[in-house]
Amino acid sequence: MLGIVAGSGILPIIIAKAMTERGAVVVSACHRGETDPGLADQVREFTWVKAGQLGKIIKFFRSHKVTEVVFAGGIQRPNLLRGFWPDFTAIAVMARAGSVQDDKLLREIALEFERNGMQVLAPHIVLPELLTPAGFCVGELSAQQREDALLGWRAASALGELDVGQTAIVHRGMVIALEGIEGTDSCISRAGELCGAGFTVVKRAKPQQDSRLDLPTIGDTTIDTLLTAKAGALVIHAGSSLMLNPLEIERKARAGKLVIRSVHDIAELS
After folding, report:
1. Which of 125, 182, 183, 252 sits in a 20 to 30 Å window from 194, CA-based?
2. How far apart are CA 62 and CA 59, in angstroms?
3. How confident is the model at residue 97 (pLDDT cuts 50, 70, 90)?
């Protein structure tokens, strides 16, 4: 039995639909104000929870004999500030984590599921095709875009070490925007307002990333945001990020003349 801890976006639906088609029994805990209600049509059973109701999720999963858990989709950080309802289980987990930073807290949450007899799996372990492949390429980086990507990769790495975000945006040798609590899409939109067309976006996993939790994710809606903001290039972390709807990503990127390159490390940009 697979349990999905569902946040925003289409990833929960992609996983639920694919696993159900492969014969798995899937149930889901859906976050109010985040999870697409359409997920209910793809799972055997579901329950709605508020952010912070960890004990309710665990109780629901145990009642359905869930043995494997996958986290799919994020919770918008501003929403956590405005509507966080920690139950006793969540409060205990936060106390053990000693931090509200993403990495420490998510690892402690995963441990709580494991203490209750459930194995936490990465989305790409459940569906290997979600992992961003090496060598994914649309168009070619210009010399300037390559230089900007090198700087962006280093900036995103430093940002990740601080457990702040996963995205850095560079234009003509200048760091324009770094992802904070607002999330990737808002960071991209802000960069477009600041510098206009042609900037380079780098999204990579944090150096200390737990691959089961909060991997960088790119979907075709991300491409829509990039095109609206008039980005010139996107560099993503091959093997350490998720790519949703790659065919649609490629189609939209080619139509909008957006360059995309997936790389394992900075050496591939040199």
Report:
1. 252
2. 5
3. confident
The two structure tokens encoding residue 70 = 């996958």
Residue whose tokens read 């966080």: 84
Span 149-159, average pLDDT: 96
- CA 108 – CA 126 distance, rounded (Å): 21
* 174-178/167-171 β-pairing: antiparallel
Number of CB atoms found within 10 A of residue 1's CB: 16
Q: Which residue is it, tokens 């690892």?
A: 107
Q: What is the pTM of this model?
A: 0.91
**Alpha-helix residue ranges (DSSP H) falling in 98-142:** 102-115, 123-126
Question: Could you give the residue ranges of the DSSP H alpha helices within the chain?
Answer: 11-21, 54-63, 77-82, 88-97, 102-115, 123-126, 143-161, 184-195, 220-228, 246-256
Nearest CA-CA partner of 236 in 100, 103, 94, 137: 137
